[in-house]
Design goal:
Blueprint lengths: L1 E2 L9 H14 L5 E5 L7 H8 L2 E5 L6 H13 L5 E4 L4 H7 L5 E5 L8 H14 L4 E5 L2 H8 L8 E2 L21 E6 L8 H11 L6 E6 L2 H11 L7 E4 L5 H7 L2 E4 L8 H9 L3 E4 L13 E4 L4 H12 L5 H14 L2 H18 L1
Parallel strand pairs: 1-4, 2-3, 4-5, 5-6, 6-7, 8-9, 8-11, 9-10, 11-12, 12-13
Amino acid sequence: MVASYGGPYSGNFIPSLIAYDKVIKQMGFRTVYIFPDFVEKYAWVETMKNISDSVYFIPYKPYSYDNVRRIRSICKTEHAILLYSRMSGWEITGRFAMPGLPMIWHFEMGLDLSKKRSRLKYWAKYNLLGFGKTYHIAVSESAAKAINSLHTKYTCEWIANAINIDRLIPKQATAFQTPIHLLIFAYQPIIKGLDLALDAVEKLNKNRVRFILMASAQKHTYEYIEERYSGNAPEWVELLEPTDNIKDLFCQADILISASRSEGLSFANLEGLYSGLPVVYSKIPGNQLLAEFKMTYPFISENANSLAEQIEKCASELVSKNSQEKNREIILDRFSMDAWSNRIAAFLRRVLTLR
């Protein structure tokens, strides 16, 4: 597995690899992992070393001959029979490193093919660069349909990502705080729609501060807030340092805001729902599955007024214990690590049979 994961925390990704590694061993196989070398300093690396047979670290230079050469060398040393790419960056590099091996491209993002140039680019990627026995997994139904519309040799399968419920605390239905605390994950401010959320909350707080917007922030978030407000951010904006204690963020919040312009399958939305929060979300393809959950409020994408209206509506309704429990039932059934790893195992069995 070539996993170009660069996060400082284990998040949901590393627990998914732990679940994956368990079912692979049950199938009678072993997995060799290749990560970017800059992650060696992170604590989760020790976890991966403890559960896996072999872990390699190479300089992260996607699409370089150096990475092609290094991946090829590791595959030959370890007698690889299948190459599996997680996260974006090494899927094409891996394909050229071992052109004769079956390979899985696991697509983690949303896919917009509305523009001719974008469609042509992805057609070339999936049909020309994804040559040979290249199989596809997408984390959202919309992304799988988009990839399949490119007429790839092998049908892309939708396997939704899973969340690690062990790092969450299910909240019980309670009254909202005063002011009401809204949480948004805004490490990519524009993609995640932080600008829309700020516009909406600014409108809602026009006469008095009724809402606090808590933004889980990283470097680009701070830069965006500094540029937008010239160092004088409103009192109702609270920037939160990156943390792996995700339960603390959900415990502080009353409502989760998902204003994204693009999503594959948002971990945060599922985590928020499992934690017991209502979710106000943008009506984009990657968020479609939220419609089947309780306590979810869709707004028109790119429309801050619509977002403000749905926040207002959500804030006026009680959080129901019954709704919380129904949401958790759906997540346990379809988005738990066990459910995910079983679907991945079934997919791998088919691929290995075809090879």
